[in-house]
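Table S2 (continued). Query chain:
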Amino acid sequence: MNWLDSLRWDRDGLVPVIAQEQESGDVLMFAWMNRDALAETARRGEAVYWSRSRQRLWHKGEESGHVQKVHEIRTDCDNDVVLLKVTQQGHEPAEPSIACHTGRHSCFFQRHENGEWHSVEPVLKDPEAIYR
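Corresponding output:
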């Protein structure tokens, strides 16, 4: 059996993916992959996702330069979620990495407090300067 066949793909042929920074353990982002994206990720050693809005493969960092080097590909106990252990690249070594299109370290920058969402992580780089 092909390793891709052991995953539980949804009805659209997708599987949810969590990107976790290997060094810090921070959860950077959530995205989707189809079979081609996961196979290409394994082949390249860099994250390739399926963009549902663009309906095409999306090599993380193709526009921003914020590439994700993949160290491990894991799946959960039900084989229906993939975890990538990554190093987020495309920034100066002394600076925090940027994974989010908003210019933040993580896409999970909003925290629930007293019935409202509050941004709790700073914008590290203006998205206008990232996406040309």
